[in-house]
Design a protein that fits this description.
mainly alpha, Cytochrome C Oxidase, Chain A, globular, disordered C terminus
Length: about 475
């Protein structure tokens, strides 16, 4: 039987996409383990205290980098290649170079995390890995981005649609953000308060302009693909895209409210954060008006259920983020653990849930093997439960922390810390649940990527018995 164009593309993507998905899964487990250790140390400071590598500061930073660059980077590479190739109707080219860039990327992250744990780190947000690893990371990323753009440039249809806009923008924005930040922090270090502004700007923009557009692009692709209907009010998508491009880089500086920086900087960030209501509303309208036309299909299709959970999480928590950017609210929450709510919502509740759905959707097409429904269902419910517990603990605990910290008459250790401790314990258990769900995800993925070497032998024995009978 002659292969369809989609089957040809999937066959060309099999090895490369499987490599990036398998690598992403390992980094996800590493990040889950580090997240648990960090959470456990907040409830028991003496946990692993005899090991110099496992101080809270090192573990926390290593966990964030493993999650964003390890899990996030590899999953972005896998999803980018498959969606761009599918939409371009072009086979994936340069597979050896793509694998080479992936190996360099993962080796550089490994050395970078070891450097962090050994105390050799930079002080810039999401640029903490030792300086020596960044050239290797940048070169490997440049190789990947160039080959992805070659695939897009070879597309058969000259027109582009929303998934391509967001994914290609994400692909280009990461090196642009890095070069701007690296120049101002390392090559030509800025003076005064600018380095602190630039450091925070890069760390926050990495989430808004790298992870977020990728997840939105994947959602724009997978929802109509599974539902079988065009995106509702699709004409708004281009408005939402340019709103994120124009507003997100400025909105992130509202986190500097109350910091030692000129007052106009967080003021501009607050205005832009409020304006982010527009792209949030556009994405919510596009996704949910489309998905809820057939709520039964959303519920019965597990990949789509993951994605819709992620888009709802994106909508609700983004509106919460707008409220927290208001100066009067920020004064209460700015230096509380509410910032953990923002980070974990983006990486767990939004980005990861959409990537899980995307992997479950594309991997069977690439490998020709379906993942068990019960295993996917278990993964969904444990992930959803863990995310909800984690975010509620950080949200309520952060508000409690912020309000009590403003009461100067209270004793810090007996009142503030004691009141926040129960929420730290909840986050520790939430990370256990999330770690279990992520282990299930990795097992699900690896079972279809790496076939059981005894499967063929087992099947042949059955056939022999049937023939004998």
């Amino acid at each position: 039987m002659k292969e369809t164009p989609e089957q040809v593309i999937d066959r060309s993507a099999k090895i490369v996409v499987s490599f990036f998905v398998a690598s992403a899964g390992l980094w996800l487990l590493a990040a889950a383990l580090l997240a648990y250790v960090a959470a456990a140390k907040l409830t028991d400071p003496f946990f692993l205290s005899s090991y110099e590598f496992f101080t809270y500061g090192k573990i926390k930073i290593a966990q964030a980098n493993a999650f964003v660059y390890g899990w996030g980077g590899n999953s972005i590479f896998a999803v980018t290649l498959w969606i761009i190739a599918r939409l371009s109707q072009v086979e994936i080219r340069g597979r050896i170079l793509l694998l080479f860039s992936g190996v360099i990327w993962n080796m550089a992250i490994s050395f970078g995390l070891l450097g962090i744990l050994d105390g050799h780190m930079n002080s810039h947000e999401m640029l903490e890995m030792p300086t020596i690893v960044w050239p290797a990371l940048f070169i490997s990323y440049a190789i990947f981005a160039f080959l992805a753009l070659v695939i897009h440039r070879s597309r058969k249809n000259p027109n582009t649609i929303a998934p391509q806009w967001f994914i290609l923008a994400s692909l280009i924005w990461f090196p642009a953000l890095f070069l701007i930040a690296w120049n101002g922090l390392e090559i030509n270090p800025a003076r005064g308060t600018l380095p602190s502004v630039l450091s925070l700007w890069f760390g926050q923009s990495l989430i808004w302009l790298w992870l977020t557009p990728m997840a939105l692009g994947a959602a724009y692709y997978i929802i109509p693909s599974i539902i079988g209907k065009a995106i509702d009010k699709y004409y708004l998508a281009i408005f939402g895209f340019w709103c994120i491009a124009a507003l997100a880089p400025w909105s992130v500086v509202h986190h500097l409210e109350g910091g030692p920086v000129p007052m106009w900087i967080p003021a501009v960030g607050t205005v832009m954060s409020i304006a982010m209501i527009f792209p949030i509303a556009v994405a919510s309208t596009n996704f949910h008006a489309t998905a809820f036309r057939d709520i039964g299909k959303v519920w019965n299709n597990l990949p789509l259920r993951f994605v819709i959970f992620g888009t709802i999480s994106y909508t609700l928590s983004s509106y919460i983020g707008v409220i927290f950017s208001l100066p009067d609210v920020a004064k209460l929450t700015q230096f509380s653990i509410i910032n953990e709510f923002h980070f974990n919502q983006r990486v767990y509740g939004f980005f990861s849930m959409i990537i899980f759905g995307m992997v479950y959707h594309m991997l069977p097409k690439i490998t020709g093997k379906e993942i068990g429904k019960s295993a996917k269902s278990f993964h969904f419910w444990t992930s959803a439960f863990g995310v909800l517990i984690l975010l509620l603990a950080y949200l309520i605990g952060g508000l409690t922390h912020g309000v009590l910290a403003q009461q100067t008459s209270l004793d810090w250790s007996s009142s503030v810390i004691t009141s926040v401790q129960p929420y730290f314990k909840i986050t520790k258990y939430a990370f256990v649940i999330l770690g279990l769900s992520q282990l299930v995800f990795v097992i699900n993925v690896w079972k279809v990527i790496f076939p059981n070497p005894f499967a063929a032998l087992f099947e042949s024995d059955i056939e022999k018995k049937e023939k004998t009978a």
